[in-house]
Amino acid sequence: MNWGGWSDFFAMGGYALYVWGSYAVTLGLMVMEIVLLALRGRSIHGELGRARKRGGP
Description:
Layout lengths: L5 H6 L4 H39 L3
């Protein structure tokens, strides 16, 4: 596709809301996945630490 300038690029031929909205939703979900994985990892490490202090498995 050939654009006349940056404003035409960002307008995406009239479909900017759908295109950039899709990118935003995808980026948001990817960031949320990373945050949730980090939180779950912390939780698991905490449980393992507590189990070791108790002498459990």
